[in-house]
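Sync notes, pocket subgroup
Present: LS, DG
LS reminded everyone that the earlier model was apo-only. Rerun requested with histidyl-adenosine monophosphate included. Inputs:
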Amino acid sequence: MPRMPADRDVIRAPKGMLDVLPPESARWIELISRFTSRAERFGYGLLLTPIVEHYDVFTRVGETTDVVRKEMYDFVDRGGRRLALRPEGTAPVVRAFVQHRPPTPWKVWYLAPNFRAEQPQAGRYRQHWQLGAEVIGIDDPDVDVEVIELLWGFCRDLGLRDLRLLVNSMGDAETRARYREVLLAYWRAHSALLGNEMERAEANPLRILDSKRSDWFEMLEQAPQLGEYLTDASAAHFMRVQEGLQELGIPFEIAPRLVRGFDYYTSTVFELASGALDAAQNAIGGGGRYDRLAQEMGGPAAPSIGFGAGIERLLLACDAEGVLPVPAARLDVFVVDLVGVSGTARLLAELRESGLAADRAYGGRSLKKQMTAADRAGARWAVIIGSSEVERGVVAVRDMRSEQPLQQEVRREEIAAWLRTEIDKAPS
Ligand code: HAM
């Protein structure tokens, strides 16, 4: 008997990082393919960027944000370069835009793992996957509406209903400069309550606003609101976004304290929260405008907007709402070989090439065991090859849905076409 390793000897995935196994992974395929087809329908193309970037790509995301200050997985490679595992998806997209200078508007979508060394808990992981979309190079409120519509429609299509769309405007540079001053004065007046966090408030006054600390609740409630400082141009842009959402029948709430976690945000910001998830981790997607990031990265002026949605959280929300179940195992045909005939591999290849989902058992197992395997695989039909069938040039076919083990014989060379016809008649 091989020694079973003691639990503590087993090498596990790194803390806060998940494996996704079949059949659960079938939901990932379903979710991703729904997003893919929607994004492509909206005119977005897939962008793939490396998992690692130069560290500096992310410092522009916000030196005062926790994601950059405390949570980056960064390292020095053998060539002495400081690199980082991607903590979020927007900075790499802008880096690629500045590097390649594609024509604008540049509409891209992505699917990528992100790494943040956070304290893991339900819905918060050290590796999480995001589906996202970005439109680079255009400052038009209609684009803000389109990007929100893409996320909203995707979540609705998954079957999610308990959704809250929060929107706000962070205004332009002038707005934020004025607001920062007012806010900082307010924090200074509350420095006793802020304690050690006063340092963070000084570095970036906005960062305090999205805190969920209950003892700060009243202070945050009373804090001056950014909306009161919007310039006319910012207010007009935000108004047009709201009208656009109304036109499309997308319900939203204005959330005056929504400022989002990265320094690059300007103008429109939004978050989609699931009422079915715990309040602390209920954001299934979020995004906003980042009109200056391309310039900050050494590129041309390219006002932009996008969002990222966390796949793990989307699936948690689907679980909580009882939608997008794990698809049942499904196979068109299972080949049961009782004689070890050399033609089985060829038959299987023929079935698969004809477009059928086909599998078999290995290792010369008994009829009973192979039929159990066929059942477990969710096979619609079993094709059985025994010695008498081989002699007569036929195969036995069993309908796995019928209660009786009724079998019929089909000529070996006709079996692929026969199965195709049957399956087309009654697709499962
Ligand atoms: P974010 O809000 O940090 O934004 O992340 C987007 C989504 O990723 C969140 O709403 C959440 O669903 C998921 N997420 C974030 N962190 C974790 C985690 N530790 N564990 C599980 N899920 C997580 C961004 O990353 C921006 N790049 C979004 C964006 C795109 N803004 C403009 N364009």
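DG: Residues 88-90, 116, 118, 124-125, 128, 130, 132, 134, 261, 283-288, 306-310, 312-313 surround histidyl-adenosine monophosphate (CB under 6 Å).
LS: Residues 3 and 382 are 38 Å apart (CA to CA).
Action: DG to write up.
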